[in-house]
Amino acid sequence: MKLYFSPGACSLSPHIVLEEGGFAYTAERVDLATRRTETGTDYTTVNPNGYVPALALDDGQVLTEGPAIVQYLADRVPEKRLAPPAGTWERYRLVEWLNFISTELHKGFGALFNPQAPEAWKEVAKSQLTRRFDHVSRKLEGKPFLMGEDFSVADAYLFTVLRWGNYVGLELAPWPVLTAYQGRVAQRPAVQAALRAEGLI
């Protein structure tokens, strides 16, 4: 397998899951500005949308979209308990979290990374993200991970997205639960390995 990634982008989530799952894989960096990979490949020939992540499988299939990739990987290693079994109520809760992170958090940061976005738009985006952080903080109260005791693919995604606050002036300090959560996840060996591989630590 080969993961196409950009350091610190949402592709960090499947990168963490690849490490957590103990997969044999390679990783190729993508320059999102030029849409070229580090080996000179036109990335749009891999993923026509031009954004990361993409996971190229050994049989020639290419899977895109982070929530799809992480569930695929989790289902390959059920013994790692990175996702509840398909068809269970817990699995639908996991899908619920992945969708929330994708639409309410991930997309919410879009305006903050856009240099052409008006300041008024950015303030609205920050206000919305603040309310979403309140919600996640309440849900995490009293438990180590989103799904309870087990680290899941949703945690890999949430950790990735919450990191972005450092770059846009949306610090986690007002949410001690989220700050503690980030610290807990960051200490996992697989997370450390992915961060090192992307040059983030």
Descriptive overview:
The chain is α+β, with helices and mostly antiparallel strands. It folds into two domains: 2-79 and 191-197, Glutaredoxin; 83-188, Glutathione S-transferase Yfyf (Class Pi), Chain A, domain 2, CATH 1.20.1050. It has helices at residues 12-20, 66-76, 89-106, 110-113, 119-140, 153-163, 165-168, 176-186, 189-197, and strands at 2-5, 26-31, 36-37, 54-56, 62-64. A five-stranded mixed sheet has the order 3-2-1-4-5, covered by helices on one side. Helix 3 (89-106) runs parallel beside helix 6. It starts with a strand and ends with a helix. This is Glutathione transferase GstA. GO terms for molecular function: glutathione transferase activity. Its EC number is 2.5.1.18.
Determine Rg (CA atoms, Å): 17 Å
CATH domain class name of the largest domain: Mainly Alpha
Question: Any idea what the shape is?
Answer: globular
Mean pLDDT: 97
The portion of residues forming beta strands comes to 5-15%
Low-confidence stretches are none
Keywords: Transferase
EC number: 2.5.1.18
Enzyme class: transferase
Organism: Pelomicrobium methylotrophicum
